[in-house]
Amino acid sequence: MSSLTILGATGSVGRSTLKLVRETPGRFRIAALAGGRDADALAALARELKPGFVAIADPASGARLADLLDGSGIANGAGPSAVIAAAQWPADMVVAAISGIAGLVPTVAAFGAGRRVAVANKECLVAAGAFFMAEAKRTGTELLPMDSEHNAIFQALSAAPAAHVEKVTLTASGGPFRTATLDEISRAGPQDALRHPNWSMGAKITIDSATLMNKGLELIEAHHLFSLPPERLEAVIHPESVIHGLVAFRDGSVVAGLAVPDMCVPIAHCLAYPERMETTCRRLDLARVGRLTFEAPDLERFPALRLAISAMEAGGSAPTVLNGANEVAVAAFLAGRIGLLGIAAIVEETLAQTATGDAPASVEAAMACDSDARAIAHSLLPKFAAKAS
Ligand code: MG
Q: Structural domain tally of the chain?
């Protein structure tokens, strides 16, 4: 039986992971769980799965969690230090599925010799990619990509040594505004943007998918995870979301990873790696899918992707700034304070107001750079405020 810790247990990836755990009794023991602020959901999971430790990130929800677990004998804590304690709890594998930059410190805290960390949190690779990869290497941590595109690419890369890779392609569904005009995109509200055609995910990543910032963040994620220079990475729009990633080798061969658009598949791959586990994940039925189509991304209607590619090419602290500004802007959009195009506008202006420094060489440096970017982005919100309609 292998022991598993889930950081972000009450989120979308956390819940899908636990579904697989329940379907394979006797295969996994839950070591620790960490959640954001839903004490009731977290306590219910803890009572069911009986981990050694449970952490809730929101300090204000700690008393509620402790009350709910009273008499259960399950140790628990609240706040950032408790989440770090959960990350460091003895376990064979840690699923890092906290959303946003908030996942950086706990994910790095989970690193340790002989440990496997399945990375679903892309922001830690965007904001501190060089440090993150160096730290994984230094600590002897094995990283497994859980993001669907990166998981497909990881699997395809096993076809030949890295030296033979010519190009790596990530697909993007194109989101709910793939065929929308710039004017329609400018008028889209949170409810329109949260209506993703193929994937069911958390709010932050769903908005990132609507602006295509998600694909930009994923290019930066792939750049670090697979040590590939920006010119060997590209994104293509593929509305059916059946092919998730492709690796082209120097002889012209292309190996692609296909599956239904459901996180069940990459999660199962990571959980069982290097073996394979039986799952009830939906199966791909190509005859039913019928057609697979592709188009180049439109960087004019989706400026966020253009900004992310530029930040990847610029390197240094630019991706950290991009990510911090984007998180502030996405939260403001979800709160109805700015329009959808305001997100890229705020990211662009934050980057313009920030001198590109060195890539963060520590978690502290990444968090400081993130915090500076957030302050600038916040100060820009009034300038891009949505007009009251
Ligand atoms: Mg993805």
A: 3
159 and 281 fall within a common domain? yes
Are 35 and 85 found together in one domain? yes
Distance 80 CA to ligand 1 centre (A): 26
Distance of alpha carbon 130 from alpha carbon 143, whole angstroms? 14
pLDDT digits (tens, 9 = 90+) for 141-181: 999 999 999 999 999 999 999 999 999 999 999 999 999 99
CA of 65 to the centre of ligand 1 (A): 31
- Show Cβ contacts of residue 89 under 8 Å, excluding neighbours closer than 6 positions: 5, 31, 32, 51, 52, 53
> 114-133 pLDDT, tens per residue?
999 999 999 999 999 999 99
Q: Which residue has the tokens 């662009």?
A: 348
The enclosing domain of 118 has a CATH number of: 3.40.50.720
Residues 266-289: tens digit of each pLDDT: 999 999 999 999 999 999 999 999
CA of 73 from ligand 1 middle (Å) equals 37
Q: Are residues 27 and 80 in the same domain?
A: yes
Q: What is the largest CA-CA distance in the chain?
A: 63
Shared domain check, 85 and 12: yes
Residue 29 near residue 52, CB atoms below 8 Å = no
Q: What is the 12 CA–ligand 1 centroid distance (Å)?
A: 13
* Residue 61, both tokens: 């929800």
Q: How many residues does the chain have?
A: 389
Tell me the CA–centroid distance for residue 147 and ligand 1, in Å.
5
142 & 153 share domain? no
Same domain, 174 and 295: yes
What phi and psi values does residue 342 have, to the nearest 5 degrees?
-65, -25
pLDDT number for residue 387: 66
Ligand 1 centroid–CA 149 distance in Å is: 5
CA of 70 to the centre of ligand 1 (A): 38
> Whole domain around residue 31: which residue ranges?
2-146
Distance 47 CA to ligand 1 centre (A): 31
Which residues, chain by chain, have CB under 5 Å from ion ligand 1? Answer: 147-149
Evaluate if residue 380 carries a pLDDT over 60.
yes
- Calculate how far, in angstroms, residue 148's C-alpha sits from the geometric centre of ligand 1: 5
**How many angstroms separate the alpha carbon of residue 79 from the centre of ligand 1?**
28
